[in-house]
Amino acid sequence: MSRAEIVSMTEDCPDLQAIHKAGSILQSGGLVAFPTETVYGLGGNALDPEAAKKIYLAKGRPSDNPLIVHIADREDLDLLVSGIPEEAERLISRCWPGPLTIILQKSGIVPKETTGGLETVAVRFPDNRIAQAFIRASGGYVAAPSANLSGRPSPTSAEHVAEDLGDRIDMILDGGPAKIGLESTIVDFTEDIPVILRPGYLGPEKLREILGEVKMDPGLLSEADANTPPKAPGMRYRHYAPAGDLKIIEGEPAAVYAEIRNRIHAHLQAGETAGVICTEESRGEYPEGNVQCIGSRAEEETIAKHLYEILRGFDEAGTAYIYSESFYTPLMGQAIMNRLIKAAGHQVITAEQKGDSNG
Ligand code: TXA
Ligand code: MG
Fold it and tell me: What is the pTM of this model?
């Protein structure tokens, strides 16, 4: 296939002609990447089993990893599911359109190819006017995983999509950088008590305020072992990982800075490349290496927004050893660290208080 056509626009000034064309591409079985407020999605017609197969092929994704069906009108949910519990109704009335995906029992209209063989379906109503116009132009039901190659960080810009999928899809709607930068919170309503399958911008406190009792999928907790895999199939795979070796260094700030400084210094002495993911507050602590400032702890949404871009940047720079501070910020910290820990393949090290060992 030739390179995908890329059309730039803004939410305030959408290119209706391009969106119409994108809709026609989906209606005739093709694939189009589009912006959402979380990350870019790779869209295909959710009711067409062949489109789902094409999505898996383009991403290089295992076909047992289900896709999220995106809608642009609350009423369109009714057709996709076999029933909507009252608490799910309450949550979506407060949080849609927005960075929330819900899991319900699917109806007969949703093909098994879209749901990775499951009897349940994931549904989301994104809060982005380009996405909404595109979904409507496509017939109302767009299956879309994040628009990255399987295993790479999710794309937060059209450039990231083009890098991964530019020669595998038909078109990319470029709506500029994603506002949030982390994938939606996934809440499963198919059990007695709602379960968070993937943490996101919409945090547990807010969910509890609306729903009352909410559980965290035990497979997501750091103590989880191989016997309790996460329920969302996609959360089981190695993910978001840069090509270099990424480790998270935790502990007292001064000890963390010293540990990372020492490690970077040792790598550089050995003729290796090394870098650090730090914040505005700490960038002055690192005199050498590839120093990447992710955002500011005082504005935690900046950290979420830049995470994937920073991880991709290390690949471009070819940095072999990457160290990151941890970012347990008050609201989004759980979601940010969930992604970062996966990217690091669970390599989390506590810095020694004295801070000058190389351990
Ligand atoms: O923010 C988002 O959710 C983005 C944008 C494009 O909307 N989409 C996204 O899709 O992150 P994807 O495919 O990269 O991640 C979907 C996750 C996967 O972990 C998948 O296993 C899980 O949702 N999932 C989908 N359907 C499910 C189901 N029926 N039961 C359990 N998990 C499901
Ligand atoms: Mg993904």
Answer: 0.95
